[in-house]
Design a protein that fits this description.
Elements: E1 6-11, H1 14-25, E2 28-31, E3 38-42, E4 52-57, E5 68-70, H2 74-83, E6 87-95, E7 99-105, E8 111-117
Parallel strand pairs: 1-4, 5-8
Antiparallel strand pairs: 2-3, 3-4, 6-7, 7-8
Length: 122
C-alpha cells in the first residue's frame, strides 16, 4: 500500500521556519545544491520509521501542508512551540485508545499536528 515518503513545507521566509523546526524538533536542515532554493530536511535515523522532506519558498498563499509529528509528550511540545513563536490552533485532544494530539501553526502559518501514543487515552 502506498505510504507518505516526503513532505514539503512552504514558507514566505524559509530561514525563519528552518530555525523554528531545528529548535523545536532538532531536525537537520541543509540547503540543496540544486537549481532552485530548496532545503532538505532530515527528521531522524534512516533505520527508524518516519519520513524526510523539504522546505521551499511559498509562491502562492494556497500552498500548505499538514503532517503529524510523533513526539514523546504533546504537553511539552506545545510549550516548546509557543516559546519558539508558534501557536496552538486546536488544543490537546484524546484519540481514544490511541493517544493525544494537537494541531499547531509554525512561524509561517503552516498547520501541523503533534501526537504521542497512549493506549489509555479516553
Amino acid at each position: 500500500m502506498p505510504r507518505v515518503i516526503h513532505f514539503e513545507i512552504f514558507a514566505d521566509r524559509p530561514e525563519r521556519v528552518i530555525k523554528f523546526y531545528k529548535e523545536v524538533f532538532g531536525w537537520k536542515i541543509a540547503k540543496w545544491k540544486g537549481p532552485v532554493e530548496y532545503w532538505l530536511v532530515t527528521t531522524g535515523e534512516k533505520s527508524k520509521p518516519g519520513i524526510d522532506g523539504g522546505i521551499m519558498k511559498r509562491s502562492k498563499k494556497s500552498e500548505a501542508t499538514i503532517n503529524t509529528v510523533d513526539v514523546p509528550s504533546v504537553d511539552k511540545f506545545i510549550a516548546r512551540i509557543k516559546k519558539k513563536g508558534g501557536e496552538v490552533v486546536s488544543p490537546k485532544m484524546a484519540i481514544p485508545d490511541v493517544g493525544y494530539m494537537a494541531y499547531c501553526k509554525d512561524t509561517e502559518g503552516n498547520v501541523f499536528g503533534i501526537m504521542h501514543d497512549d493506549p489509555r487515552a479516553k
